[in-house]
Input
Amino acid sequence: MGFLEWATSPWGQSVPIHIAWFLIWVAVIAGLLFLIVHAIYVMYFAKPRVFAADDPSAVSASIPKHVPRHSLVARLFHWVMAASMFTLLFTAFLPKVGIQFNWVTYHWIAGAVLTVSIVFHIIHASFWLDFWSIWPDRIDLDDAWKRVRRFFGMPAPPPHKFAKYPPENKLFHGVIILCGLSVILTGVFMMSRVRTIFFPRNPYLFSDMTWGLMYVLHGLAGVGLISLVMMHVYFGLRPEKRAITKSMIFGWMDRDFYLEEHDPERWKVQTASSSPTSSRVEGRGVTDVG
Amino acid sequence: MAVIRDVMPAFELYQPSSVADAQQLLQQHGPDAWVLAGGMDSFDWLKDRIRKPKVVVDLSGVEELRGVRTTGDGIEIGAMTTLTEVVNHPVVKQKYDLLAQAAEVVASPQIRNQGTLGGNVSQDTRCWYYRAGWPCYRAGGNICYADTPEGRNREHAILHAERCVAVNPSDTAPALIALDAKFVLRTRKGERVIDAEDYFVGPEIDITRLHILQPGDLLTAIRIPSTWAGRQFYFEKVRDRNVWDFPLLNVASAMVLSGNTIERIRIAVNGAAARPLRLKAVEDAVRSKPRNTATGEMAGKLSVQGAFPLQFNTYKIPLMRNLVKRAISGVEEATWAS
Output
């Protein structure tokens, strides 16, 4: 059983044409396994979270009851992206598991929406938000190492509280970037193979081998997104993450949750005494992956 | 067309004698099984070695799939009834002559003697890229070789193309749609009776099939209700060689007139898309209209709205417009006023 499906081109060349569709089920099962194992771990084995001591009293008094986390624009982007992503996944994979419907038109329209929203997000995050807040910094890496050591019972000091985004969130965002850009870049070219309003149809834009590899990359990233979206939804529904999910709806999180999980020194929120010109200080969502 | 290599690949041959046995074999072997009716389409695939099924289920020994039977409300034609039997059956000729006309222009007499009604409506497309074994969309690949500027697409689709531009080649399919026939299927979930037009699917739904039969399913019979028995029929097929060829386009209509006014009508074309198209918009537009040149022209123009010709099949647009016009207004009205 191969991971790819191959065909012989009219010129006798063996070319990949797409991924083997059983990988859809591999992705679903992998996602489910992750959820089950994580849920069991949290329920029965996880130790209480311990952070390095800080001095919240110095700033806690100035923290508002509702800590702003995601701007309206950022939230709108997130939900538009989510809607297009679900549409893309359902239209891509339901026909492959036997649910037949007219999927291509919905798929490319959702793909166009996703592409536009991602381009908007890149520009918005680069020029209007704190671009670097979603990327791991040195403290994240140090803390990750400490957490790994502590997980295995090795001596290590407790990690810092989180900045605006926990390292897991940043890691997820990074993987989503890889998969998302893969499906978008390949998908844009693949649009030239179907009739859309964007390009004149030209199936001979690339060689059969290049096209085949493009379809394979599109498929691999697509099934990867199945697992990733399952994980994302799962964490969004977990009780201890509810404050983060709520912030993606209402734009803010509770003061108590903020002080419990986040380091005011690493994620400063706007207070009456802080500078209103700094986006980081304002605490606005930068790269809103939930 | 691919070079016929004459020697078929090896397969297990089963020759059931009942529908139940045939269905059991088909369900047992699922996608590995190939249904053999008259063999007119199958032998091309097998001899060209494009399809190499592990199992072939030959239905020729299933007597209950043969013959034309009158029922309380019309007739039932077994799926394995040959086209010649359909053409020559007195009830078909007398009451459902539209089907007889369509079946009579299928291929050649020899082929009609062997080819079956079920096979004719279930046959695969004639797109040569696909039949030559090229890895196109319909074959599970990711390209349509016909829908390119250089592609040989004179016979291909002008309507409802979705990635694949192959067309359905059946002559009897539009006649059965016009007669409001029902197709009787045996599936894993039991017997299903569906409208003729719902038997066929386009590439937007399933790009690898022309009909809804899934592995394990069997078309057992076609029922034609008496609703349109003995009405005003029209069938016309246009092909490159009148002695023996697949349709470039064909049209079938059944009409009820009140004086010269079109009271009810069903009309379908084939060869324009991957499935035979029932022209509902045309039916609605001409209902209660006089049967004359103006109505025919209006119907013809309406029928090709949304047509998207390829490099070499633009001719199909005026061809379809004219066929529909002739089906509505009659051949004697064929000249266009505008």
Remarks:
- Chain A is about 55% helix and 5% strand.
